[in-house]
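[retry 2/3] DNA-directed DNA polymerase: previous attempt timed out, resubmitting with same input.
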Amino acid sequence: MVRCIFHIDLDAFFVSVEQVLNPKLKGKPVIVGGDPERRGVVASASYEARPFGIHAGMPSSKARRLCPQAIFIRSHFSLYKDASAKFMEILGDFSPHIEPLGLDEAYLDVTGCEEPYGSHRQLALAIKERIYKELELTASVGIAPCKVVANVLW
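[retry 2/3] DNA-directed DNA polymerase: success.
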């Protein structure tokens, strides 16, 4: 039997958690991270902020210069940890073979788990739907016979 590995990554995780808690932030350039007036760093940027060149790891002061209208939010790691725990719990309902890669992503070995779903693609869709239904977060899934390729394909 050929192995099947999923690489599952929650999209713009920190920002997305903040947007679930405050829906008024949806559709706006939002940046989670350190204070732009100090030596802060961008932890996550919404998809609306990214066209301005903003990305994780960039100094918050530079992000402010690139997108002055962005909404800056300090990180709330306890909220992200809670959402991550629920995410991992959902993955565990699909396969016991989970390898977390951080709060917002994991490898999931789903070899032999596709039968009730018809295919690995359908299983991936079921996982994405469950994550959205329970957490209101979107996810990307890479599907491959090994971790390296699954990670590249997401």
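[retry 2/3] DNA-directed DNA polymerase: The radius of gyration is 17 Å.
[retry 2/3] clearing retry counter.
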